[in-house]
Amino acid sequence: MTKKICVLPGDGIGPEITAQAVRVLAALKLDFELETALLGGAAVDAAGDPYPEATRKLAEEADAVLLGAVGGPKWDTLPREQRPEKGLLGIREHLNLFANLRPAVLYPELANASTLKPEVVSGLDILIVRELTGDIYFGQPRGIEQRNGERFGFNTMRYTESEIRRIGRVAFAAAGKRNKKLCSVDKMNVLETTQLWRDVMNELAPEYPDVTLSHMLVDNAAMQLVRAPRQFDVLVTGNMFGDILSDEASMLTGSIGMLPSASLDINNKGLYEPSHGSAPDIAGRNAANPLATILSVAMLLRYTFNLEAEAQAVENAVKKVLAEGCRTGDIFEPGMKKVGTKEMGDAVLAVL
Ligand code: IPM
Ligand code: MG
């Protein structure tokens, strides 16, 4: 049966990078039907809503969603409900995409692109499993109010044990397929919510006897990620800590322009997007690195459609192109061949 993919180019460099990813998908000649819709600032401009009804419907009907990026300074001053980020949080919540997988892998060809010493990062291969539909991101009550004659801002950090168990299972299973080490990150020395997080992770551990579970406080984890990142295999953490640690981890690999991500529901329906943002400063200039989005296509093939061979073909094509010396500006080094967004897409297609 034909599978449906909803393509959401979004804002900034989003349309340019998704265009290349869509070419890659098309080249595989699979039985996929692609439909494009608006999300983020582009949707605010066209429909006054960052996650309009038409997009909701398409996203709901699709088997998978491929997203570019959302946001930009143009929309930063709008009321919160109309900001592009609200579209992204909206689709995550609507589709119940609670499991966010963010791999940070260093390609040997890019060892010098990292700001860390090559001996610290070479061979790096980490997977961050970030809970994506709970925590302080979605907790109520929240707001800014007038109290006792001054403004008062508040948010609520919250997790139910079933939410923690559900993401814990994803992380244990992922670690079981890798190097069998799972590090759970919390702040249990201060926050009750994350004490519960640690307790539930400990309760799950006996179900996964082949995986070694450890715990780390988030401040230490942030430090260890730059001190000795190869000690980690899989990290599992809540929405907010995962947001911060995954940006940090991405930089170990030299460029956030290389990192894909998957956000999955309980049935592996997923939204796939690069880990980076919409980079408005370079939008429309054929300068963005499309590889994170192309690698997101590989994740889409693997996680939603179980097409492992095709996923690897895409990943190998990316490796080959890097080995050939093709570099967009973000990963450029003297002596390499500088290419634009479209030319990088051409190079991947040529290998595929
Ligand atoms: C991310 C982004 C989003 C988040 C923003 C754009 C709402 O930073 O996907 O990491 O905080 O989750
Ligand atoms: Mg983030």
Question: Which class of secondary structure composition applies to the elements?
Answer: alpha/beta
> How would you state the average pLDDT, rounded?
96
Under CATH, the topology of the largest domain can be stated as Isopropylmalate Dehydrogenase
Query: Which CATH-level-2 architecture of the largest domain?
Result: 3-Layer(aba) Sandwich
**Going across the major beta sheet, what is the strand order?**
2-1-3-12-11-4-5-10-8-9
Number of strands: 14
User: Could you describe the largest sheet, including whether it forms a barrel?
Assistant: 10 strands, mixed
Topology, element by element:
Blueprint (H helix, E strand, L loop, with lengths): L2 E8 L3 H14 L4 E5 L4 H7 L5 H9 L2 E6 L14 H11 L4 E7 L12 H4 L3 E7 L11 E5 L2 E5 L6 H16 L4 E6 L5 H13 L7 E6 H10 L6 E4 L1 H14 L7 E5 L5 E5 L16 H13 L4 H16 L2 E2 L9 E2 L2 H11 L1
Helix pairs in contact: 1-10, 1-12, 6-7, 8-9, 10-11, 11-12
The structure holds 3-isopropylmalic acid (IPM) and magnesium ion.
Descriptive key words:
two-stranded antiparallel sheet, ten-stranded mixed sheet, about 350 residues, 14 strands, Isopropylmalate Dehydrogenase, alpha/beta, binds magnesium ion
